[in-house]
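Think of the structure tokens as a kind of shorthand, similar to the way a musician reads notation: each symbol stands for something richer, in this case the local conformation of the backbone. In the example below we present two proteins back to back. Begin with the first one, reading the sequence and then the tokens, and try to describe in your own words what changes along the chain.
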Amino acid sequence: MKKKIFTFITLTVLAASSCKNLNVLPSDAISTGTIVTTSDGLTNALNGAYALLKDHIEFNGTVDQNNMYLRQFYHLSDFASDDIVCGQVTTDPLYYSFSLGHSPAQGNTRYYWYVSYKIITGVNTVIDAVEKSGKTDATTNQLLGECYFLRAFCHFNLVRLFAKPYSVDPNAPGIILRTNLTDPAKKARSTVKEVYDAVLADAEKAATLMTQPRGVQYASQDAAWSLLARVNLYKEDNAKAIEYADKVIKPGKYTLSTKATYPTLFANAATSPETIFCIAFTQVDDYGKFGSIASMIYSDGNSGWGEEYASSSLRAAMAAHPEDVRWSYIVPLKDGNGNVQKKNGIEIYYISKFSFQGGLPNLSSPIMFRLAELYLIRAEAEAKMGATTAALDDVNMIRKNRGLEASLITTVPGGSTLLDVVLNEKRIEMAFEGHRTYDVFRNKKTLNKAYWGYHLAGLKETDIDLSKTPTGYANLTVPYTSPRTIYFLPIDEVLSNPLATQNP
């Protein structure tokens, strides 16, 4: 493994759960005192935080090449959706996202919880040191704001995965908030509302502090506003969602990729005018077949496992417009006669959104926020406020930049609602970027996975008559009320922290 900067994480190293703290200070570590008194201390501490989003780190005594914050986030989010089909049974715990056979002991949720709180505790250490120092210059404030942003970002992703949506039950158990270094190890879960309030407060503070942007590979005021737009949309504070989306859209600092440039947007994320915030990977970070985000959803024959594909459900939603440039990220594997090949009866349509940075099939700099999402956030909020023309204008802003200039939507189609129009567009635009399941369940809809794939646990292709819509199979359709729309808290947390009640 390559050497990374982990200066801040040596300050407080978490053990197997968020509430087991080990005070470890190796000889080469930067102490809390030197974080703010050395010229590079604070910057290096932040580099350590960003590195934890993409590195494979030790967990329970071993370094598993499959364990990486971003890899697990996309698997836990997208593999539970109707956009990706499971191509075969696997022993990788990602399978539980397809089958909904969740367990408190599954390795991916345990690691994700662990590394999330490792980031949170690290930035808390930096925040504490900087605020005690009294330094308030613009450079220090920028870096401090990035700490607040990362804390908000990690708490929000945790509450999305492990708690009910705000719109379903704001008083449901959320996650354990860690906003200072004096919290007791054994701490109860805050409510979903309390978590949202903390996330919003952190993101708002981050936005006021960050006035010296360091590039899209770091958090910025625009990234904080984007997070605030997203969180307020989930909270159904539609006016606030529009307000923050406007702060990003209206100045014109970012521009949508065109139909000519969209096919290379994700391979060139760090330089795209559409990118607001991405996690920068370099060629040194190319994990290849083992542990990359792309390896499960793309293969050129050698580069990855290529075991999961774009679903027939998503492709059906896109089928009316073959001219849509968003097809460029859905790559059919064809035989010598031009026919799409199958595996286990499933057509192989690879996904390349996390591929081809520098021409490498497993390398990309995953985008956390981009301008298209802000248009779609605003469109959804406008739809819910009854602003039909404004919502369709925002949808069409996306469509005309994706090769659909001749297919703009001027009226709501019969049998659909305005919200349906927006969510359908978002499904296609943001596919494979970790949004679909949350968009379905927070809008109190049912996820329909009525197509063949190994998400139908315990079955085989011949068990289903593909000429008919299959019914009666477990987890084929998932209502927003299902307890398996969220994951169990990891067993590490529950065993070491009796105040942390388990999800049903």
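Once you have a description of the first chain, move to the second and do the same.
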Amino acid sequence: MFPKVSLADVLRVFTRIGFLSFGGPAGQIALMHRELVEDRRWIAEDDFLHALNVCHLLPGPEAQQLATWIGWRLHGWRGGLAAGLLFVIPGAVIILALSMLYAIASNLGWVAALFLGVKAAVLAIVVQALLRIAGRALDTAVKRALALAAFAGLFLFDLPFPLIVLGAGVIGMAIAAWQPSLLALKPGGAQDGIAAPRPWRGTLLAIALWGAIWAAPMAAVALTLGRDHVLWDIGAFFSQLAIVTFGGAYAVLAYMAQEAVQGFGWLQPGEMADGLGLAETTPGPLILVTQFVGFLAAFRMPEPFTPLMAGLLGAGLTTWVTFAPCFMWIFAFAPWIDRLGQAVRLKGGLAAVTAAVVGVIANLTAWFALHVLFARVEQVSVGVLRLHWPDLASFDWRAGLLAALAGMLAFALQWSVVRILVVCAAGGLALTLLP
């Protein structure tokens, strides 16, 4: 028998979780499991895992969506809103402060030296994430083929990220309907997903309400600044990203980096690694790295505002359009959790997307490695291929040495992310500034 939980208890516990949610999705989910399933017994083990599987099907950060679902389960929309916001706000405030400091001080030599080490550490951390996810996700030949195809499509042919993710989902659903064992799925029975009710009214109401909340700041930007302003570009881009962010921050980062660096010119390649390093060291979802990008984009094209005010508006708009859809997905689909969790075709789509995400993260790893280790990287076209080719003479031996150090600390000594980042940042400072 599970205890009745007050809204005040939900607020208190999720405030604690919000400030302690380091370590990316795996660490955050483990923290919630310990706090809410093992220690307080607010949620049953089966319900927790069941909801987590469905959250993987939805675009957006699965840990934040799981927190929102738990709050909804305990106290309806009030609990869901409280839990989801408290999961995000502490990290968002810290990332905003660090983004302001980065924008103001990034031209200082000692700051650049620190972030040389941060970028090298992030490279090792991303490689570690790639191997961990691949070991868990690629348990059949079909999944390995999907991962390889996703990597080739992005790294060699420069295909659009949404096409990769959505295409993998369609393929997975088709395979699940034909031969689910190819994706390590059990065949579905005739009653799969039938027992739960069909709450269409609540779902449509949630989509309408949260769709309006999602669109409200974009309407304000269009009416006051116009659709040629950088804030419109920021809001439109991150709204699009919110729809295709399957697989978490690592999966979507390569697409975001490509557009933010090459498409819009908001950031330099190395700055994306700096942003991920900041997000790795702070609580909250790793997708908060989008706030760093939004801040810098508006800070550097501030008219008619001051740079600081523009940066604050860019960060706020980015956070709004990134997380408002997360609440919409959960409040719309929470009543359907029991049905969706047993749908074999949807599980097949999820399994295929997860496999493709391994290829996406491999592409991100290669992209990071090239831009961290080499000062100059060009994109070369060879027929239908689009290759990223480094200038070998621009190899940065300091970054290579620090990346090797980070790899040893991560794999051989199994240090935590924060400790690796601190040591490598200090190493970057020493190698750059000491005579």
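Compare your description with these statements about the second chain. The beta strands are 377-382, 385-390.
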